Amino acid sequence: MALTTEESGRLADLLGEHDERIAQRWTDIVAASLRGRLSHAELRLQVQELHRSMIAAGRAGLTDIQTESAGELRAVLAELSRGRVRQGFSATETAVSIYALKDVLVELAESGEVELSLRDVIAFNSLVDQMGLYTFETYVRARESLIADQAEQLLELSTPVVKIWDGVVAVPLVGTLDSARAQVVMERLLQTLVDTGSPYAIIDITGVPAVDTQVAQHILKTVVAARLMGADCIISGIRPQIAQTIVALGIEFGDIATKASLADALRHVLRLTGVETARRHPRREA
Asked: What is the largest CA-CA distance in the chain?
């Protein structure tokens, strides 16, 4: 239900005439619902900003939360929602902070200080409902964006590219290698090859629980991309179970060097670069 310009004007007058009492009670009710998780002073500032933006919108002829006159009000609601996401509040707790205004208006009406017609009550409640719904929707979008950013950060952290020797970098893979993660692996590996000028890269799949055709294709694409950058790749971590799976699936790595462990792969690369290596054997007793 949209407000008429007369109703929005009356709402603005009501909020302005009783501004101090409304702001105080609104803050108290919200503080009680959040159980001390935000300071009273911080809540008071948020409520006062909402209060002022509602008065300004009402005096500008607010009829609906989506109208041009409600632009500043929407911005305040959106910032409140994004802030509550960052602070770890729920969508319900965020919306309740808006709906608390209804309780304040009811208290004013019951005290006899203001007279509200039934139509005004319905119109004001409708506006507060729109504000709460807008806050809820904005919260959900902000939360989804935060989760996506965190997932991307975790994805990057789970695919480190480390320099383990001069001219040798390694990508230790742990967990499932899907298309999105394979793309991140490729990008980070290629960038590291450019930054370090390394001619060799070791892709270690010790932590990959299973290798199927899709995983093998992702690895092969990464190897081809690295070769285009002038680097040779060695795949390490080929356990017996994975070797049997690769054979059973008919997957071929062609001329790509494969080793059972990261240590074997590093030893192989060092031999290619002319660095002498020696295996350590347990000292035999005389």
From this structure: 105
Burial of 73 (0-12, 13-18, 19+ CB in 10 A): buried
For residue 156, the one-letter residue type is E
* DSSP H stretches of helix in the chain: 5-17, 19-34, 40-59, 71-87, 91-111, 118-157, 179-196, 213-228, 240-249, 262-272
**What is the pTM assigned to this prediction?**
0.60
Cα dihedral 65, 66, 71, 73, rounded to 10, equals 20
Distance separating alpha carbons of residues 17 and 15, to the nearest angstrom: 6
Type of residue found at 169: V
> How far apart are the C-alpha atoms of 15 and 158, rounded to whole Å?
52
Q: How far apart are the first and last CA of the chain?
A: 96
Per-residue pLDDT of the chain (286 residues; tens, 9 = 90+): 678 888 888 888 999 999 899 999 999 999 998 888 888 899 999 999 999 999 999 999 888 888 888 999 999 999 999 999 988 899 888 998 999 999 998 888 888 877 888 888 888 889 999 999 999 999 999 999 888 877 766 665 567 888 888 899 999 888 877 777 788 888 888 999 999 999 999 999 888 887 888 888 888 888 999 999 899 999 999 888 888 888 888 888 888 899 999 999 999 998 888 775 555 545 444 4
